Amino acid sequence: MQIYTLRFNQLMNHGNKNLTPEKFQKCIVDLTFLPKSYNENGHQISDLVAYPVARKIIERADGYIPYEQIKEKFYARPCGDFWGYGFKAFPNSTNTRIRH
Questions:
Q1: Distances in Å between the alpha carbon of 7 and those of 14, 34, 40, 98?
Q2: In which domain of life is the source organism classified (predicted)?
Q3: Where are the domains of the chain?
Q4: Where are the alpha helices (DSSP H) in the chain?
Q5: What is the pTM of this model?
Q6: Mean pLDDT by 10 residues, the chain (100 residues)
């Protein structure tokens, strides 16, 4: 959990290439990382989002309705493209492989 706290503090103090620290500070006041064993509602929601995304990446599941519904929520460029911008897969070659 310590690495997540460190990264959170970096974003809050320095921002990233897309958002300034001030934008992060306006949106996020505090963040606590809990182990999965706590079975918090937030973990369950993240699982509901992560599964359709994983299916898209791993199985290249085209037309998978849960994925199609959540992809509109990703941070995107003005043209609507979110691959490699609001959505990143690692390694980077994965972004190219599944983009279309």
A1: 10, 15, 21, 27
A2: Bacteria
A3: 1-33, 36-100
A4: 2-14, 21-27, 41-59, 65-70, 92-98
A5: 0.49
A6: 82 88 87 78 81 82 83 85 75 57
